[in-house]
Amino acid sequence: MDEPPLTSFSVTHISYDASDPIAYMCAWLALVPQILCVVYATLIWSSREVEIFLMFAGQMGCEVLNFLLKRMIKGERPPRIKSKGYGMPSSHAQFVAFFSIYLTLFLLFRHSPHPSDTHTPTTLAERLLLAAWSFVFAATVCASRVYLQYHTVNQVLVGSLVGVLTAIAWFGVTTIARRKGWIQRALESRALMMLRVRDLVVEEDLAESGWERWKNVSRRRRLDLRNGSSVKTKRR
User: Fold this and answer.
1) Residue 27: which residues within 8 A CB-CB, separation 6 or more?
2) For the chain, is the Cβ count within 10 Å smaller at the N or the C terminus?
3) pTM of the predicted model, to two decimals?
4) What's the Rg (C-alpha) of the chain?
């Protein structure tokens, strides 16, 4: 009895010219969506921030939309690449465009940090710089898809446009959900309270606030050590 033919699980299979250092870098950039998914999962688990979960939900919705569009349009990839699947629109371009635009909208329109005893917020200039970096990052990933000839320029442009529009639409949906109080009611549900889901990142820079709190804890520990050493010295 003949055995069934095997197929490859080609999620991270990239073809490139091994003699070309730029192509080698572009091959690594092809892993960006997978890396960002790991980052999403790590941040959701470690911070329990609802805003990160909302962004990830929109990101996955954007991927589903790309899956449907590819099967509706059925645009072929450039002939040099013998890759399974359709090429229109580029899923990599759509992924990074959504990530970049949603992050920018959050930083400029939703993230409103304010100073406190344990928190020194980032400035608007710093947030603009981070947003600009995300644009450069997304553009580099898009260019790498054309350079490796996995997509045409049009496929990348359409993917980027769909990602941008999806990010704007999803940001609008989450804004309405916040204004209607739906997010707050969900946060007060028993399930999310058991999971310790919170909504601090809108008003705090988590890394900075965590660092400020750590400095206060460290200061108290140093004082405790000094006081303990003084007590021991007096006893002697």
Assistant:
1) 14, 16, 148
2) N
3) 0.81
4) 24
